[in-house]
């Protein structure tokens, strides 16, 4: 691992699903490099391969061919347990389905990854309190996931993903179930952690979310068709995320 290695590098990444004998090409030769501290939004129509791409980058789906490098280390050749260690140490993941542990409280769901990552209990608790507070969930800490709305579960999943201050935050439509007030809270938190240097790769349909990114990568039929920096002057400053509530979606 070198200090200036990109956090993510995908080289000619391909995923072809084989279901019922018919090959379904989901990702068709993606090259993508994400530097430390970058916030990259991935956009594209439904079925364009966004979820498949970020799942592969997090080791949750195997590649058909190509290479994945994380933090300067080859990752696509890791075993499942190797990926599990890498995820625990370096990756925070927000899935489209939130995968909270049903028989644990919200607080424990959020603290667990930090504790597993070796963060001292007191620090894990403080981080959890900070994240739940930022997301308007402070009073839900002792609830169980089943007692939460979909939007609340989604925000808990984001808090959990950030608990460990991971090297990389991967998120698949983290505002997909949120109303504008909760979207604003999520955007404000993403802006804050990005400002603190958090590297983010995030799938979104929402132009307001994408407008906070440094770069927007557009996928179509499993290929990158556009990859452009957002000019700083046009970027939504994180402090202005409060404006979001005024926008119509
Ligand atoms: N587990 C799977 N088995 C077979 N085909 C899949 C599977 N997951 C996704 N696909 C197909 O791969 C393509 C890309 O899907 P996906 O990555 O979910 O797109 P997006 O997230 O952009 O909507 C679609 O054609 C989808 O039907
Ligand atoms: Mg998807």
UniProtKB/TrEMBL annotation:
Query: Which of UniProt's keywords are assigned here?
Result: ATP-binding, Nucleotide-binding, Transport
Q: Indicate the segments forming the ABC transporter domain, all copies.
A: 8-246
Keyword Repressor applies: no
Classification via SMART domains: AAA
Q: Where is this region: Disordered?
A: 230-249
**InterPro entries this protein is in?**
AAA+_ATPase, ABC_transporter-like_ATP-bd, ABC_transporter-like_CS, ABC_transpr_LolD-like, MacB-like_ATP-bd, P-loop_NTPase
The question of whether Transport is a record keyword is answered with yes
- Source domain of life: Bacteria
Q: Which GO terms describe its molecular function?
A: ATP binding
The protein here is known as: ABC transporter ATP-binding protein
Annotated source species: Microbispora maris
């Amino acid at each position: 691992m070198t200090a200036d290695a990109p956090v993510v590098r995908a080289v000619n990444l391909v995923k072809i699903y084989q279901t019922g004998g018919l090959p379904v090409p989901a990702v068709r030769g993606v090259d993508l490099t994400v530097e430390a501290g970058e916030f990259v939004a991935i956009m594209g129509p439904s079925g364009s391969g966004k979820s498949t791409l970020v799942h592969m980058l997090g080791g949750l789906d195997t590649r058909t061919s190509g290479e994945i490098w994380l933090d300067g280390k080859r990752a696509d050749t890791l075993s499942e347990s190797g990926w599990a260690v890498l995820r625990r140490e370096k990756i925070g993941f927000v899935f489209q389905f939130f995968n909270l542990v049903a028989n644990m409280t919200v607080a424990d769901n959020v603290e667990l990854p930090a504790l597993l990552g070796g963060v001292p209990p007191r620090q894990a608790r403080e981080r959890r309190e900070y994240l739940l507070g930022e997301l308007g969930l402070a009073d839900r800490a002792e609830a169980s996931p089943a007692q939460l709305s979909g939007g609340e579960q989604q925000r808990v999943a984001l808090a959990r993903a950030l608990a460990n201050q991971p090297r990389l935050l991967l998120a698949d439509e983290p505002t997909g179930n949120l109303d504008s007030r909760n979207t604003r809270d999520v955007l404000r938190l993403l802006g804050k952690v990005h400002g603190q240097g958090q590297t983010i790769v995030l799938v979104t349909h929402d132009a307001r979310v994408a407008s906070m990114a440094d770069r927007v990568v557009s996928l179509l039929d499993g290929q990158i068709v556009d990859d452009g920096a957002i000019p700083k002057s046009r970027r939504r400053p994180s402090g202005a995320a409060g404006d979001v509530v005024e926008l119509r979606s």
